[in-house]
Amino acid sequence: MSKVLEGLLYSDSHEWVKVDGDIATIGVSDYAQKEMGDITYVDMPDPDDEVVKGEGFGALESVKASSDLYSPVSGVVTEKNEELDDAPQKVNEDSYANWIIKVKMSDKSELDSLMDAAAYKKHIGE
Amino acid sequence: MEEELKQTCLYDKHVALGAMMKPFGGFMMPIQYSTITDEHQAVRNHVGMFDVSHMGEIFVNGPDAAKFVNHIFTNDIEGMADGQILYGMMCYPDGGTVDDLLVYKEFTPDSYLLVVNAANIDKDDAWIRENSKAYDVVIDNQSPKWGQLAIQGPEAEAVVEKVTGLSVHDLTFYTFRDFAGVGSHKARVIISRTGYTGEDGFEIYSEPEVIREYWDAFIEAHVVPCGLGCRDTLRFETGLPLYGDELSKDITPVMAGLSIFCKFEKKEFIGKEALEAQKENKPAKRLVGIELHDRAIPRAGYPVELEDGTQVGVVTTGYHSITLDKSLCFALVDTAYSKLGTPLMIRIRKKVFPGTVVKKRFYQANYKK
Predict the structure, then answer these.
(1) Residue of A38, A64, A90 for testing the chain B interface, max B β-carbons within 10 Å
(2) Could you give the ipTM of this predicted complex?
């Protein structure tokens, strides 16, 4: 069973979003980190980079494979979680506590297309 | 056309252990049982076991066997002692690689065992037959009749002797022993001191029933089952090529830096002229190792570039090395940029990362010579 936190929004490509005003904190779901296995690198954009909903903004890398990260919202990156540069395995340890980027959203209505916890649970079949 | 995937004689045992199964070389093979990292470390530090029953076994017998094998093989088998093994390639007349393989000189006269890559069994068999017409030899592809285990790691010797009851401690690297009438099956068992991991280890060949019993016995002796995932990370660190990535019909042994296994002093072998000319005139591209100065991971197919963005090569295999904790890759690059110490960039998704050309042998192997 993968953990799904209440109060977050989820994309069908397994990113989560926590909304605080017009700032979206973005990470990956517990389901996604389990699918990847041991994460060895997190490829993140830099502050001031633009991200677009539905487009790749980075990647998770495991020993064998890399998996693209897709932005659940559009906007400008305000922060990246630099802790993950040295300790990418933190995403495996707790993928909700260890966010990846924060984005200043340009269009909050984009949030409407994301899933709540109940819908996401259904999406991953749990 | 989708070809049906074959199973090795240990398929049900992998499934029972909960292995992640994926297609490889025409077979459904175990990629990992626990994690690639744990299995990799088991081989580097203790001992691990691989099902390599998918590999092909092609026997060449007959009065012209030595002459014929030397005709199709880049290394020189002249004067090989019984029980000795040589690594080398079979090449096309243009120098492109048909396959890389091991040649075992059997204990009977005029008799050789060729161990080839799973994905290439049918192609190799056809190639060998096609080129054997002028020679008095019998080609016998026995691949489906043989199972094979690789027991790899510093503790391999002790556990192989314990489990099989056979004496292997005095085997030197790249030699083998051929046992007859082993166990209740009265089976033939071949054990060689070979492997594909950079650690000491053995490869055990026998009929499927015997291999199945050995598998269970090694598990009981706490040998860690290891999948093809860590087989690839282990061989990669050791600088060993994988056919399809670092060798192919378009990548010659000379380009791959394997000239040492091409004996140009031999009177002839298929591909000799082309390979010799390529060595003398330098090939257009060479395989190099590249170390990145960042944790980003280069993967097969990523472009290798100069600082100005000109593409000068492509990554063939890349990992964040488990043993060395560095991002490393093999890449095929224009020869002008293949010197050790050359700065090169690798494009990974939207960014480029700087790296340096280094020796392909990232990890120093621990063979028992």
Answers:
(1) A64
(2) 0.73
